[in-house]
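As agreed, record passed on underneath.
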Amino acid sequence: VAVACYLTAGRKLRLVRELEQLRAVATAAQDVVLRPLPARLEGIELAGGHLSASRGAAVGGDLYEALATPYGVRVIIGDVRGHGLAAIGTVAAVLGSFREAAHEESRLGGVLRRLDRALERHLRARASGECPLDSHVDEEFVTVLLLEVGADGEVTALNCGHPWPYRLYEQPVGPAMARQTAPGEVLPPLGLFPLPAELPSARWSTLGVGDTLVLHTDG
């Protein structure tokens, strides 16, 4: 009995160490993929962070990025179904595509189509076994919200299954007021259905001095 207990305890200890090592690797990979946001872009102050809603699930599928481009400040926030290394691989594929397309595509719809094609290639590679992180590829999808803030402060948005942001308005007296942005048409998350020929975009009123947009995921 003593020998059996010793072997069982040793096996559990090895499993715990392997789990801790895997989590450390995944956390390091996530830190590389999710770069810290710049403090300021084209007169817009930025801040961002990641906090898991589930205990012990520090590594998830959330993604975000903000870039100054010839077409304005472009922002992406999204959420990959699932968590762990497989989700991080999908996050890397989507963010890598955004970081290129945001500078090259003159229209926000062109950026979204590039993201859709990048996700399709990534999932196809996983399904064919080229990627060792295969995990329910047929059920994989990504919610995405794209924003473009023009030089005049006007905001354009494209939404694929993601929560709309909130806007904080400064008041002459008292705390700021929070309102959800006027929702436009919402497309399905990327990866579930092909994008339609016409992409419905939402346009919001110009951001004023002191106004704040709060983007978030549903996790």
About this structure: Helices lie at 2-33, 85-104, 108-127. Residues 2-214 form a domain with the Phosphatase 2c; domain 1 fold (CATH 3.60.40.10). The radius of gyration is 20 Å. Residues 37 and 47 are 6 Å apart (CA to CA).
